[in-house]
């Protein structure tokens, strides 16, 4: 590629921004400000800015709820990884999965799932909804694999909510969707649990 062509592509790249340099600098300053935390809200397409100290205090309160979370004495990641490898090897040996699937599902990363909270701005006091980010964790590829298997089944039950934003369902169906979602979430967690 010639220098002239490279400069042409670089110029096109910079022309594609629809904000000024001053606005870009302001965004950069916000991003690097440790006193604030920028988050998406729980429902909707809105972004909020929270005081980091207040956000961390709320997250700490959530994590110290012993009815929901349990403090572990040691990191279970390696044990979970070893157990999953054993199960996958057994499935491969029994010809229930092929070599390619085995290689895809075998955990390679040791990333611990991370938790963060999204503010429920539609509720008084905007409490945080805890979100577990398992991207890159030991069971991440397995979760995606199972989700792909289940995907064709979605929408084939009376309790499937495709998109609540498209309109309102009769009250009984709304309640059925909410209750079913609650139970599906619990089932999903238990289905993916790998005992050590």
How many beta-strand segments? 4
- Biggest pleated-sheet summary: 2 strands, antiparallel
CA-atom Rg in angstroms = 23 Å
Q: Extract low-pLDDT stretches.
A: 164-196
- Tally the structural domains: 2
Sketch the topology as an H/E string, one letter per element. Answer: HHEEHHHEEHH
Q: How are the strands ordered across the major sheet?
A: 1-2
Range of helix content: 40-55%
Attribute tags:
two-stranded antiparallel sheet, disordered C terminus, 196 residues, 11% strand, 7 helices, mainly alpha
Structure description:
It comes from Oryzias latipes. This is Reverse transcriptase domain-containing protein. There is one protein chain. The chain contains seven helices and four strands; from the N terminus they run ααββαααββαα. By secondary structure, the chain is mainly alpha-helical. The strands form two sheets. A two-stranded antiparallel sheet has the order 1-2. Strands 3-4 form a two-stranded antiparallel sheet. The longest helix has 22 residues, at 171-192. The chain is extended.
List the helices and strands and how they pair.
Elements: H1 3-15, H2 21-32, E1 36-40, E2 47-51, H3 52-63, H4 77-93, H5 99-105, E3 114-119, E4 128-133, H6 140-150, H7 171-192
What's this entry about, in short?
The chain is mainly alpha-helical.
């Amino acid at each position: 590629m010639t220098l002239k062509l490279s400069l042409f592509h670089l110029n096109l790249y910079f022309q594609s921004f629809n904000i000024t340099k001053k606005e870009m600098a302001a965004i950069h300053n916000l991003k690097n400000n440790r006193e604030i935390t920028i988050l998406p809200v729980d429902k909707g397409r809105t972004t909020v800015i929270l005081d980091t100290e207040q956000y961390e205090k709320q997250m700490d309160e959530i994590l110290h709820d012993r009815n929901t979370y349990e403090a572990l004495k040691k990191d279970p990641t390696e044990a979970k990884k070893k157990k999953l490898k054993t199960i996958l090897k057994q499935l491969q040996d029994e010809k229930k999965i092929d070599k390619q699937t085995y290689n895809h599902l075998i955990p390679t990363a040791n990333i611990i799932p991370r938790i963060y909270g999204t503010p429920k701005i539609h509720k008084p006091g905007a409490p945080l909804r805890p979100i577990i980010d398992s991207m890159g964790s030991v069971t991440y590829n397995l979760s995606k694999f199972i989700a792909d298997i289940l995907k064709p089944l979605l929408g084939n039950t009376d309790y499937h909510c495709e998109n609540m934003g498209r309109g309102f369902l009769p009250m009984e169906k709304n309640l059925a969707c909410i209750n079913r979602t609650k139970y599906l979430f619990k089932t999903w967690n238990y289905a993916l649990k790998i005992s050590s």
